[in-house]
Amino acid sequence: MKVGLSSDNHFDVNRLDAAELLKQQAEYLATHHYDYYFNAGDLFNEMPKSLDYMDKLQNELGTSTQAYFVSGNHDMVRGVTFDELESPLSPQYLHNRLLEIPNSDFVVIGENGWYDYSFAENASTPADADFLKWKHGFWIDGVIEQPMTDSERLELALQQTQHWLDVAQQKHKQVLYLTHFVPRDTFTVYQLKRPSYWNMANALLGSNRTGQLLEQSQVRYAYFGHLHFRNQPLTLGATTYLHQPVGYRRTRFRPEWESADFMTEWKNTLQTVNL
């Protein structure tokens, strides 16, 4: 089975014609014989638009390719509640689900993921209350409502992941894990100058506990997004991490695209795995 993986398309932030690009993505996936397409989130800054996009993409693909996604933090910003995020919003929404891949030894586990501030341990390690204050003052996640702390939300994500890993083990299946948030601080960047904006932001990117769980369970592949850096595949233990987000066309920090054309960026960062 030929699988394509992408993340952080940011159609609205990049001011793109999503309706036209949807057709181009569908044509590329179909003509290159992808059986599955998985997106690890940050399609739009509004969940209804992300759901609509994936629904229309599936309609455009027909039966040639099956398309699924998990939510990134940007998708959570508007138009969705926490309870809705934890519910089966659409057939294309893969959060807290296990998808069996026919005629293969694999299942795909989808989990939005979250964070617990642990990535900031190499910084000055403020108290949790300081991270929360900074989050609400400077970070887009500050507008995302939730009925629990960030650490509790990460714990929920780990419990959900463990459940589906147990199911996969019972089925004697290998796992491709799809998540938005970063599973290892190996992929983050720390600045020596302190206090640092980016070191505070690191706290809100993910958790090593996610990667530890995946590696302990010998997950074969883990694809994630969120960081707008691009990494070569990295294998830790039995787990190969894949991370090639599209990212922003323009940014005040550094250039993220290597061209001026979205489809070129999307094709060049599309990760292909044969299951």
TrEMBL record:
Organism: Lactobacillus selangorensis
Highest taxon of the lineage: Bacteria
Transmembrane segments: none
InterPro entries per record: Calcineurin-like_PHP, Metallo-depent_PP-like, Phosphoesterase_putative
GO molecular function, one term: hydrolase activity
Designated name of the protein: Calcineurin-like phosphoesterase domain-containing protein
Signal sequence residues: none
Domain Calcineurin-like phosphoesterase, residue spans: 1-228
